[in-house]
Amino acid sequence: MKNTLNSLMAGLAISLAASSAAFADGEVNIYSYRQPELIKPLLDEFTSETGIATNVIFLDKGLAERIKVEGRNSPADIILTADIGNLQTAVDEGVVQNVDDEFINEHIPAQYRDPQGAWFALTTRGRVVYASKDRVEQDSITYEELADPKWKGRICIRDGQHQYNIALIASMIANHGEDFTREWLTGLKNNLARKPAGNDRAQAKSIYSGECDIGIGNTYYVGLMMTNEKDPEQKDWAAAIKVLFPNSDGRGTHVNISGMAMAKNAPNRENALKFMEFLASPKAQELYADAVFEYPVAPGSKPSEIVAGFGEIHPDTLPLAEIAKYRKRASELVDETRFNDGASG
Ligand SMILES: [Fe+2]
Q1: At a CB cut-off of 8 Å and minimum separation 6, what does 318 contact?
Q2: 302 Cα–ligand 1 center, Å
Q3: What's the gap in Å between 51 CA and the centre of ligand 1?
Q4: Cβ neighbours of residue 320 under 8 Å, at least 6 residues apart?
Q5: pLDDT in tens, 301-343
Q6: pLDDT tens for residues 246-288?
Q7: Fold agreement between 2-123+258-305 and 124-253+322-341
Q8: How far is the CA of 292 from the centre of ligand 1 (A)?
Q9: What is the pTM of this model?
Q10: Is domain 2-123+258-305 in CATH 3.30.360.10, yes or no?
Q11: What is the CATH number of domain 124-253+322-341?
């Protein structure tokens, strides 16, 4: 009860602070899971092009729940987040509205947007294999192959229930069905060098230290490690690995997205739509993608030089909305197979 009350009070405090701003013309209120410094260049460009000011509320959790608590008076216009799981949560909580906009649809391929217009991807990230440059000879790989006993004791991965892995496992179900995926997950678990732990970067670190030969991680972390001046040790982790894009020659590499949605009760709907159109433009997508080491989704747009240096990505063409349907089942399979217990010896 106390927690509910606290979060309600916090929600109200934000509502008051931001809704007085929302009365002014020419503003758009953005609720973001993405770091303010990463999206600032984008927001500045939008304001200089349109004269519309942006207000950002950064949250590291509970974004959809907060908008729900704020209800009809929520100042939220736009939701910015990474991961299909977060976008789906916003849909499930009933805090988004559908958008049907010709310009946006033209610049965001159908596989990267909700069929009803509830959410739109702006960038993608591949869930790839980090492979030891020294100890892994092959230069191509498939997800299916990760269950092959030849990798026994050699693979590292983060928590199976993390949403990055849930989306990957959901994509396996979408491509192969549940029975295959259960068996695959069991095979992968039996190849683990240790219990699932750490974040994606920790898997690269474990390859660097020799604990494992193969790790699963998102593409952008390689860029973040390569350029990390604050913690230069991470440059060594990145230098120890090569990026293998699984299933490049077949159905394609599993990608997840960062994206946007229009909040259900957006008080500045017109400005919010302008902002969404701006973000959908190839120029803004590239600016955004460059800042976060991701891939813009607009047809013909290009990633940064660093990201291009990982190699070419051929994304799985299955629509993200199709994959998202299996997230719950994926999570259940992680439990059923006791994936997080690691190899059973
Ligand atoms: Fe991440």
Answers
A1: 111, 171, 174, 175, 251
A2: 21
A3: 32
A4: 84, 111, 112, 121, 256, 257
A5: 999 999 999 999 999 999 999 999 999 999 999 999 999 999 9
A6: 999 999 999 999 999 999 999 999 999 999 999 999 999 999 9
A7: yes
A8: 10
A9: 0.91
A10: no
A11: 3.40.190.10
